[in-house]
Design brief:
Largest sheet: 6 strands, antiparallel
Number of strands: 17
Shape: rod-shaped
Distance between the termini: 67 Å
Number of helices: 16
């Protein structure tokens, strides 16, 4: 359904009172204040590490050591006693990835379908526990020690002071990984008896491809040891889970609306976009690992939903604004589809390269498409508002801009897209360069989703009101046309009745002198007349009979139109009926060089029961056409009996 701005902006004819010019400035400042306030609100919502407990040990405050291979002796002694391939200094703000620490010299062609071979690696963090903290953990039984890791992958085992804590290693006989376990928000309980005062060693055995971006600690922070209950709170992002549930239900609702009104395609794109956003954030929530056990599946699903939601967002905006998908957006859709297919078929290294390609090229192209759709539509809306509502006011353009931002779907979309764009760009840069994860986008997507639903609801109500007004106008027009038609029908019926009455009257008036002519002719024919005079009077009598038949036909038409035509069955003689019909026909022929033959079946009954007048009319009509034909000819009348039916053919 295409929105017509001028129709949508129709107002009562009462002109609005122009306000002071400074109100425009106040309104613009108010809109900017709301937008900036929303951004500040999102900043304040940034996820933070919960308040530290008394036993908090921040593992980022200690150096991290890494090496190829795994030896249990290396994870339970001072790092200086072993040789290490790489060391990350304490407090260094970058992810501890194998490909950055150890496998820097290893390279693979960009977008190569094949991945690297899995290898074993060892991580070691040597942290110190002073006497006060050690005593707090050992004697305060209300504290349950726990370990929180922001992210770790691929297969892994964790040891504390040489003792195993947790294992997520799934290998086949050849040492290949059968189930991948790269995870976010890992929380593990720790036995307090494993701690010791002074030097402690947290060792990790990690198995994965050195070229994979998920092998190692692929987030910067947080990594700490604290009360298990504090760590558990941070591992479950309930806000994202609630938002994703809302996205799913909103998407299903608008999918139902599209099923009911399939011509409104932006409902379809918005519903699929909302569901794709829900899938994307659910795949980033640690709860997904309880549903999908293999992390590679969740990562692939995450990438596909990311590509899909970007295309669906552009399609939604284009359909809402312009009712069409431009060629550029279709090309972008094929690009996202190719990346999604490659991410499903090829290795995770290829999927990571595809994501980087999308971040470098696809995001910029996508934003150009979205800005083009939104800006062009918004400018058209502003010009329409200016022309309809503010063309005779002071400062019409600022007034039209403010009105369009607050009162039209295009303006509402501009506001929420601004917030979404700022947060998404920040999170995309932060995730690509600093591996901090999504911080603001989860909230801006929620705001965008909710406000988009409100915009569509408002748009639907506006369309419904317009349809109702058009329906009222249509009903009034139909009622007026019906009244006019009823009047025309009444006039036509009156004219038809007048015509029928006139024809009936004239028929009766004409039949009276004709009957006199026929009667006088019959009287004269009974006298002894000369042959020439006899033939002349006979012709006069025949022509009068023909004219009387025509008048009777006209009268019959009047009776048919009046609904009073009746069939009167009487008994009549067959020979007399045929004789009169033939005699009348011979009068029509006159002196024409036409030969007439009459053939009557000997089995024909002498009498019949029926409407004699109608039978005469039928015979006259049957014989009238040949008798009116000029020139020489031969024709006749054949009467026969077939069962109980009387057949006549000429």
């Amino acid at each position: 359904m295409e929105e017509t701005p001028i129709t949508a902006l129709a107002r009562p004819e009462q002109p609005d009172k122009p306000g002071p010019s400074h109100k425009i400035l106040y309104t613009v400042l108010g809109v900017l204040a709301v937008v900036l306030g929303g951004i500040v609100f999102l900043i304040l919502l940034r996820p933070r590490v919960p308040e530290a407990g008394p036993a908090r040990i921040n593992l980022r405050d200690y150096p991290l050591y890494a090496k190829r291979g795994f030896n249990r002796e290396d994870i339970n002694r001072n790092p200086s006693l072993s040789s290490w391939d790489a060391e990350m200094e304490a407090g260094e703000e970058k992810p501890a990835l194998i490909k950055n620490l150890i496998a820097r010299e290893q390279r693979r062609p960009f977008l190569s379908p094949a991945g690297g071979r899995e290898e074993e690696f060892t991580f070691l963090i040597a942290f110190t526990m002073d006497a006060a903290r050690f005593e707090q953990i050992m004697e305060n039984l209300s504290i349950f020690p726990g370990l929180f890791l922001a992210a770790i992958g691929d297969n892994w085992e964790i040891y504390l002071n040489g003792r195993p804590v947790a294992s997520q290693v799934f290998l086949d006989e050849s040492g290949r990984i059968t189930r991948h376990q790269s995870r976010r928000g890992v929380v593990l309980p720790l036995d307090r008896e494993l701690f010791r005062e002074g030097e402690n060693y947290l060792g990790l055995r990690i198995i994965g491809s050195p070229l994979n971006s998920f092998t190692g600690f692929f987030y910067v922070s947080p990594y700490y040891i604290d009360d298990y209950r504090i760590a558990s709170v941070q591992s479950v992002d309930q806000g994202t889970l609630i938002c994703s549930t809302v996205y799913v239900f909103v998407g299903l609702y608008y999918l139902l609306l599209f099923y009911m009104r399939r011509k409104i395609r932006y409902n379809l794109y918005y519903s699929l976009f909302s569901i794709a956003v829900a899938i994307y954030f659910l795949c980033r929530n640690p709860l997904i690992y309880g549903i999908i056990g293999d992390s590679n599946t969740t990562f692939r699903l995450e990438f596909i939903s990311l590509y899909g939601l970007s295309f669906l967002l552009g399609a939604f905006l284009e359909e809402l604004s312009n009712n069409r998908l431009p060629l550029g957006l279709k090309v972008y859709g094929f690009f996202c589809a190719a990346l999604s297919l490659g991410s499903c078929v090829f290795s995770m290294e290829f999927a990571d390269d595809a994501l980087l390609l999308w971040q470098i090229g696809g995001v910029g192209f996508f934003f150009c498409l979205v800005l083009h759709a939104v800006v062009v539509s918004f400018v058209r809306q502003v010009l329409a508002v200016k022309e309809v509502m503010f063309h005779d006011r002071k400062h019409p353009v600022p007034r039209a801009v403010v009105y369009s931002l607050l009162q039209t779907p295009q303006g509402n979309i501009v506001i929420i897209l601004f917030v979404l764009a700022v947060t998404s760009v920040y999170d995309a840069i932060s995730s690509a360069l600093f591996h901090t994860g999504l911080v603001y986008s989860r909230y801006s997507f929620f705001i965008f989703n909710v406000f988009s639903a409100l915009v569509l609801a408002r748009h639907l109500v506006s369309s419904y009101n317009q349809a109702r007004e058009l329906n009222a106008v249509l009903e009034a027009t139909v009622a007026e046309r019906t009244r006019d038609l009823a009047e025309q029908v009444t006039i036509a019926e009156s004219a038809s009745r007048a015509k029928s009455e006139f024809m009936a009257t004239m028929s009766h008036e004409i039949r009276t002198p004709l009957n006199a002519i026929i009667g006088l002719s019959d009287i004269e024919l009974r006298r002894n007349l000369e042959a020439e005079t006899f033939q002349t009077i006979k012709k006069i009598r025949g022509c009068g009979a023909v004219l009387l038949g025509i008048v009777n036909d006209i009268l019959d038409i009047s009776k048919i139109e009046a609904g009073s035509f009746e069939i009167i069955p009487v008994e009549y003689h067959t020979a007399a009926l045929l004789s009169e019909a033939v005699r009348l026909n011979m009068v029509r022929i006159g002196d024409k060089p036409i030969t007439f033959d009459l053939e009557v079946d000997k089995n024909l009954p002498r009498k019949f029961l029926g409407d004699e007048l109608r039978i005469k009319q039928i015979l006259n009509n049957l014989l009238s056409t040949p008798s009116n034909t000029p020139g020489r000819g031969r024709y006749g009348l054949t009467c026969s009996r077939r069962g109980r039916t009387f057949w006549c053919s000429g």
